[in-house]
């Protein structure tokens, strides 16, 4: 894995949280993006080499809605950039981690992504992400 690409934070209300984090960071988010396949609306703040992603559920059965119902708002996942997501998935499978996707899927911010089950990673939901090069 190369670096922490972003940290995902589950929020109830994206508009309110955008204003809150804008006051906290002293700068504005640089984009809002809906990820229909995950039923989430997201916004991103650039923090040096890494990013903060705010995530609001778009439907009651989205992972974010379930997470907030169970644990409340807060850190939801940490995403690590990888060079070759297929190779990294194979490496983690061989190391005994449970992957939540058979194949990488399209995530926010022009990325191929795959999640690792938190039960196999000390309670941390890990996301692998690789930039999609056109
Ligand atoms: N971090 C740590 N633990 C988590 C978690 C998270 N984000 N989400 C759920 N869990 C824990 C639950 O608390 C529960 O623990 P206990 O059994 O001790 O209570 C356990 O994992 C299973 O949770 P669950 O509620 O029974 O199962 P879910 O149906 O909520 O599924 C998970 C959990 C991780 C498999 C599911 O959320 C998932 O597939 N996530 C990957 C996709 C995703 O998160 N998409 C949203 C972000 C998209 C984006 O970044 O664009």
Describe the structure.
This protein has 134 residues and is α+β, with helices and mostly antiparallel strands. It has 3 helices and 8 strands, in the order βαβββαβαβββ. The protein has an 8-stranded mixed sheet with strand order 2-3-4-1-5-8-7-6. The structure holds carboxymethyldethia coenzyme *A. Carboxymethyldethia coenzyme *A (CMX) is lined by residues 8, 35, 38, 40, 42, 55, 63-64, 66-67, 70, 76-77, 100, 107-108, 115, 117-119, 123, 125.
List keywords for this structure.
3 helices, 8-stranded mixed beta sheet, 40% strand, binds carboxymethyldethia coenzyme *A, 134 residues, alpha+beta, 23% helix
Question: Helices, strands, pairings?
Answer:
Layout: E1 3-11, H1 14-25, E2 31-35, E3 40-47, E4 50-57, H2 63-71, E5 74-81, H3 85-94, E6 105-107, E7 111-116, E8 126-131
Parallel strand pairs: 1-4, 5-8
Antiparallel strand pairs: 1-5, 2-3, 3-4, 6-7, 7-8
Bound molecules: carboxymethyldethia coenzyme *A.
Residues 8, 35, 38, 40, 42, 55, 63-64, 66-67, 70, 76-77, 100, 107-108, 115, 117-119, 123, 125 line the site of carboxymethyldethia coenzyme *A.
Biggest sheet strand line-up: 2-3-4-1-5-8-7-6
Calculate the terminal CA-CA distance, rounded to whole Å. 22 Å
Percent range of helical residues: 10-25%
**Structure annotation, total helices:** 3
Shape: globular
* Averaged pLDDT: 96
Strand count, sense and closure of the main sheet? 8 strands, mixed
> What class would the helix/strand composition place it in?
alpha+beta
Number of E-state strands: 8
Bound molecules: carboxymethyldethia coenzyme *A
As residue ranges, the low-confidence spans are none
Strand % is: 35-45%
Radius of gyration, CA atoms, in whole angstroms? 15 Å
The topology string of helices and strands comes to EHEEEHEHEEE
């Amino acid at each position: 894995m190369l670096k922490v690409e972003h940290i995902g934070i589950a929020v109830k209300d994206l508009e309110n949280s955008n204003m809150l984090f804008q006051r906290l960071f002293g700068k504005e988010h640089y984009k809002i993006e809906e990820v229909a396949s995950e039923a989430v609306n997201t916004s991103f703040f650039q923090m040096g080499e890494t990013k903060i992603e705010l995530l609001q559920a778009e439907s009651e059965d989205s992972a974010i809605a379930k997470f907030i119902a169970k644990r409340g708002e807060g850190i939801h996942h940490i995403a690590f950039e990888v060079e070759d997501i297929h190779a990294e998935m194979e490496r983690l499978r061989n190391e005994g981690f449970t992957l939540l996707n058979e194949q990488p899927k399209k995530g926010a911010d022009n990325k191929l992504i795959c999640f690792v089950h938190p039960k196999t990673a000390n309670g941390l939901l890990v996301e692998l992400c690789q930039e999609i090069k056109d």
